[in-house]
């Protein structure tokens, strides 16, 4: 019996079924089978081409016009898997999804009936857009729960394709779940389940067809929205939390549907009347309306005040227009004043003794700019450094750090007159490149994922990027810092312009060769790591297709399996710095330390005996220490497909690769993480990606950029076999 049955159902709309089956055929499906309930001759012929001689695809032919509910039921009847994943023929599955889902359901306890997945959205003109569900799934985590204990899960987009159902659960409730109203089936599945679990991972692509290519919406379908919610609310009797959330969803969706318009007047009136009756009849006891405009809308709906609601809409549109005009005028006035101040400053001579530094969108003194600024103070103290930091970050600056806040008058003055501008991202578009000013782009990592204009082909990564503006910012660069020849080539490809590549190494990595035993002991003391204990640093990267961060590992279970003398240091990506940490309930164990807010990250690397990461550039930096690295790559295919990569990490990893938590645990509880094979793999990786890092990168950059020395006067890069990394924690605490 298969662990998972992928039940593809429906007609081959706009030939999307071909693309879906091609993607399934491109990857092996361990513990999974594919059933295609093919509606119509075109779908049947397409499916049969993917199932030659009774291959991995089992085709169930169905006549034209067969509805989705009947097609799903026919596919499920043929399936042998313990779990069912219903996938509409028009939708898609990211690479590796069946494997990921099969592994997840295999570890779920028997009382779980539904596994919830994240998804991306595609339309006829855009693809791979993140869903709004990521933050809800992230908050729920990976533990299984009863819906009554996590009612916000009802707010997830009602797609049946993002619910994987236990086959026995499906059979027990097939009569209720077999409906062509997919949102009803998706919500009913949650309400009927004993327990649910989440996989906060993109495992479905919801493809929205162009509205003009679909049949027009009938009045009955409009009214069906109200009927759907009333029927679902019948399932929430004596379940206050679920009833309240579902009621709020009903009112919200009814008001949104009404506001979108597109209904004839008589249909709109009848829809409003039915929604009003449902809002009154189903309102929870002591339910309070929200404040503000939303509360007014709900009040008018409950009164069935159709005419008043229309008048309210008209007044609201007028008010929004007036506010928008006023805000635009204020912005224009402020922009004119700032522009005038900036232009006046640009007329002044460039100050040859002024350098402006920024890092990570003005977060503080960090990364390559910080290492360069420190070396600059040593070698050229006549050059004054000013840091750009946000108002919130200013309080965290080292004592005596001169700084400016973005948007302030002095901010524009120093940007206009500084001889040197150093950043690991980009300065704002409005910054003018003066002919006698020097812009240094230090970057903040070695690229595994696609960057710059190479993101154009990956919508999930490129969402919101203005590539023309990006190219204009690149054209301001005079120098681009690089840690290895791979990085140099990729920067020249991703950021094409006339800058000079500085193949000097990343200054932030100097510390991996200059730190001594005392420095390492001091860091471990600050972190509370006792001498003799092994520190494992887990530092995953950001996913463009996830709204929030949920650790992809069961950290408590991992800590339990590791030796008692092991401490797990967990660092979330800085993109999630303002979010509530999912580690809150684990911090107090003493075996797990949340170091997400600890800076600089280089100190964490010095303190760690071994690094666990996925696709983060931290692996390239940590490799300088010549300490073990383990890769946890449970969603490599999805990451590679949605973000794009420059090389196959699975073939060129810096150490052992685990595709599941079980594999990772086995690596860490045996000698596999530090055996001879791991050392050989790491040596190849270090030779390629630590090419220019030898402890003197900052000096080379300062001498070349600020002191104008040429290559003959710069410290030569030491061959890798002649370098001595910082001592290991074991050596430092011996």
Automatic annotation (TrEMBL):
InterPro entries: Glycerophosphate_synth, Nucleotide-diphossugar_trans, TagF_C, TagF_N, Teichoic_Acid_Biosynth
Organism name: Streptomyces massasporeus
Pfam entry (one): Glyphos_transf
Protein location: Cell membrane
Sequence intervals crossing the membrane: none
Protein family: Belongs to the CDP-glycerol glycerophosphotransferase family.
PANTHER family registered for this protein in UniProt: TEICHOIC ACID GLYCEROL-PHOSPHATE PRIMASE, TEICHOIC ACID GLYCEROL-PHOSPHATE TRANSFERASE
Membrane topology label: Peripheral membrane protein
Keywords, sorted A to Z: Cell membrane, Membrane, Teichoic acid biosynthesis, Transferase
Gene3D superfamilies listed in its UniProt record: 3.40.50.11820, 3.40.50.12580
Alphabetical list of SUPFAM superfamilies matching this protein: Nucleotide-diphospho-sugar transferases, UDP-Glycosyltransferase/glycogen phosphorylase
Protein name: CDP-glycerol glycerophosphotransferase family protein
Transferase is among the record's keywords: yes
